[in-house]
Amino acid sequence: MMSNNEKTRFYQDKSRELAGHLDDQSFLSENIDLLREVIRFHENRYYVMNDPLVSDVEFDLLYKALEKTEATNPSLVVPDSPTQRVGPGITKQFKTVQHLVPMLSLENSYDAADLLEWDRKARELSGLEKLSYCVEPKFDGASISLVYENDLFTRGATRGDGVEGEDITLNLKQIKSIPLSATFSRYGIQQAEIRGEVLMNKNSFLKFNEQLLEQNLPPLANPRNAASGSLRLKDARLVGKRNLEAFIYHIAYLNFTPDHEEIPSHAKSLEMLWDLGFRSPVHEKKVFLGIQGVIDFCKEFEEKRDELPYEIDGLVIKVNELSLQEKLGMTTHHPRWAIAFKFKARQSTSKLLQVEYQVGRTGSVTPVAKIQPVPIGGVTVASISLHNQDFIREKDIRMGDTLLVERAGDVIPYIVKSFPELRDGSEVEIQFPSHCPVCKTALVKTEDEAVWRCPNERCDAQVVERMIHFTSKDAMDIRGLGDAIIRKFHEMGWLKDIPSIYQLPLDELRKMEGFGAKSVTNISEAIEKSKTQPLFRLINALGIRFVGETTAKTLAQSVSHLLDLATMDKEALQQIEDVGVKVAESIHQYFSNPANIEMLKRLEAAGLQLKSIKQASVDGSLKGKSFLFTGTLYKMKRAEAEALVESNGGKILSGVSSKLDYLIVGEDAGSKLEKAKKIASIQILDEDGFIKLIQKPTDTQQSAQHL
Ligand code: AMP
Ligand code: ZN
Predict the structure, then answer these.
(1) Torsion-angle region of 524 (φ positive above 0: left; ψ -120 to 50: alpha; else: beta)
(2) Is the pLDDT assigned to residue 90 strictly greater than 90?
(3) Closest-lying ligand to the alpha carbon of 248?
(4) How many angstroms is it from 497 CA to the middle of ligand 2?
(5) What is the average pLDDT across 76-86?
(6) Choice among 68, 138, 202, 625 that is catalytic
(7) What does pLDDT average to over the chain?
(8) Which helix (H) or strand (E) element contains residue 67?
């Protein structure tokens, strides 16, 4: 068997070899098994190990080559080909299927006393002094059960009632961390039933909720609901777009051939699953001898809960030795060899005291519930978005109602439901205002939208929110001008609109109480620095509806001057990559407004960068060179460094591969560095080296100096 390093090198070599034959159909069809294996390897690196070895583009080329080869030679298609994830059409109804082994639930524990008691019983039943425990996260998603037969993924089901679940095989095939085949046969296993949890990570969840809101659909309370809802979608192709992940943490059933090797412990079974290509919690798990270590670990882990990219609602403690698990057995409800340690609940009830209406930078009026403050998961929650009028109606929320409130991780708090049964008759319906609470203009609502908007662009609330967005971190990043200061300067009449940021009366500011010379200098420097921000940041900063950072980048690359956008009609705008009807409409509207053009001209006069760096980048000093950063940089932020590379004509890659020219290494560099060291063509530089490289004059400048 190959070692991990050998395996990595093998697949990397093969990737390169295949990449050299992408147009050679006869080579590809002869080597189609290898091509598939290489693609599976990269899928595993990306989706399971979270450590890709090639860039997305390199991967896509291989994948497209496979699709093409299979399309021209249909007889070569196999059921576990990476292309076979894409299911056919719509499922009308999910079949009910019986689990090979019932899925039990877990006993819960909440504190050290519960764990001590559970440990005492387990020791008593096993007759041992001290037991070895394996502790792992209790993933807060939707549980699934997978069957593999003769190495092929044949069936996947929901938990259902534990005995029977719904057959969601097609949907599960869309989740890339679930391999379509796994070589169980290597372990002498013919059939296996394994268990795990499907999750939507916090980041994907936030984006998903944003999309829902944009489509006038109510957002979901937590990633768990998002995951379980996604698994029941009738159209499998939609499942693939939801960015779901699967953790596999349990082997429920194995059908061994006679000469199999015994798996001694739970920890070993996690290793085996990992080795087979599943994302099992091998790295997350920890084994302890005796319960005390477990108890300490539970306390520690709860503190770190929010640092994880996905939600967990506790830890699961399992007796590590499998023979002991068998000996301990189960009650009718749960195994005696495992217990869940539940973290503090993140739900609570509270009363709705008042509804306030906030006007956003696009005029959208958002109702915000002011509730009796309640502590949830270590944070006091006093105010929660009610999103829009439809949300209030659907949740049947009235003033004075008792509400169930949830705060999932660093996800924003959410109103799960109201309790109509607790009403005493004093509750009143929430009256949505007909006029803007700030400027009193009559609100408007288009038919295809759920939000009411204040149509007055000079509305004070909108003006302030636009400035707050303009100066924010991902936009122009003007530090020192925070929300509160912007509001204050606006009230004082200093900040009337975005261009007025560049005319702040600094001398008067210096005289103001609370503003020392140092803080004024900082503000002034931050404002000056913002003038050199690349065009895409300015576009993002303008807050044009539907134009976020990604669209801002494509826009910046498709014009040579920002005002070019004003000359383009909707059709022309739609020619730009990723710009659809809605976005084109919004951009067109923005640039058809003379007030906006006037404002942009004032910004240009103030010295801001309205020209695209596109031109400059063509002959930038880093032209044609590719970069990747790892570890923490000290002299600049990662995003700034990347922008520098791009503005000098260089390219940022997503992973270490032979295509990489420079790896820039900060403090605490990770596995990328190790990997890069193995590829001789990659130059490894520290931050200072990088800065020198950037400052090195280009060839043309050099020759100019010699003249
Ligand atoms: P409960 O639903 O509270 O009884 O908890 C049992 C459920 O926890 C199981 O059905 C699993 O879906 C889920 N779970 C999440 N992570 C794990 C894990 N690491 N080990 C076992 N079960 C887990
Ligand atoms: Zn208004």
Answers:
(1) alpha
(2) no
(3) 1
(4) 15
(5) 91
(6) 138
(7) 90
(8) helix 56-72
- Residue 138: CB within 6 Å of ligand 1? yes
Residues with CB under 5 A from ligand 2 (ion): 436, 438-439, 454, 456, 459
Q: Would you place residue 617 in the very low, low, confident or very high pLDDT band (cuts 50, 70, 90)?
A: very low
Q: Rounded to the nearest whole angstrom, what is the distance from the C-alpha of residue 163 to the centroid of ligand 1? A: 15
pLDDT in the model for residue 152: 97
Number of H helices, E strands in the chain: 27, 23
Pick 229 or 671 by higher pLDDT.
229
List Cα–Cα distances, 246 to 167, 176, 177, 297, in angstroms: 16, 8, 6, 24
Beta pairing class for 108-109 and 338-342: parallel
Q: What angle do CA 461, 465, 470 make, to 5 degrees?
A: 150
What are the angstrom distances between the C-alpha of 388 and each of 245, 357, 402, 418?
30, 10, 19, 16
Residue 218 is classified by DSSP as P
Q: How many CB atoms lie within 10 A of CB 69?
A: 23
Label each residue of 406-430 as H, E or C: ECCCCCCCEEEEECHHHCCCCCEEC
For residue 98, the CA-to-ligand 1 centroid distance in Å is 19
Q: Is there a catalytic annotation at residue 138?
A: yes
Kind plus residue range of the DSSP H or E element containing 194: strand 189-200
Q: Residue 62 is encoded by which pair of tokens?
A: 């291989």
- Region 110-124: mean pLDDT is 96
Contacts of 574 (CB under 8 A, 6+ apart): 580, 581, 584
| Geometric angle at alpha carbon 58, from 55 and 59, rounded to 5° | 85
Residue nearest to atom 22 of ligand 1 (CA): 138
Q: What is the pLDDT of residues 645-660, one digit of tens each?
A: 887 888 888 788 888 8
Return the DSSP state at 48: I
| Contact of 203 with 73, CB cutoff 8 Å | no
Q: How high is the pLDDT of residue 410? A: 58
Distance from C-alpha of 106 to C-alpha of 193, rounded to nearest angstrom: 18
Is residue 593 lining ligand 1, measured as CB closer than 6 Å? no
Higher-pLDDT residue of 363 and 623 is 363
Amino acid 698: pLDDT:
46
| Range among 33-37, 299-303, 410-414 rated most confident | 33-37
Distance between alpha carbon 641 and the CA centroid of its chain, in Å?
A: 22
Q: Give the C-alpha separation, 666 to 687, whole Å.
A: 6
Predicted local confidence at residue 151, as pLDDT: 96
Q: Which helix (H) or strand (E) is 249 found in, with range?
A: strand 244-256
Sign of CA dihedral 632, 638, 642, 644: negative
Residue nearest (by alpha carbon) to ligand 1 atom 14: 138
Cα–Cα distance for residue pair 707/702, rounded to 1 Å: 9
* pLDDT average, residue stretch 502-515: 90
Taking only the tens place, the pLDDT of each residue in 401-435 is 999 999 865 567 889 999 999 999 999 999 999 99
Model pLDDT, residue 219: 83
What is the band of 100 on the pLDDT scale with cuts at 50, 70, 90?
A: very high
- For residue 193, which of 273, 281, 268, 136 has the smallest C-alpha distance? 273
541 lines ligand 1 (CB under 6 A): no
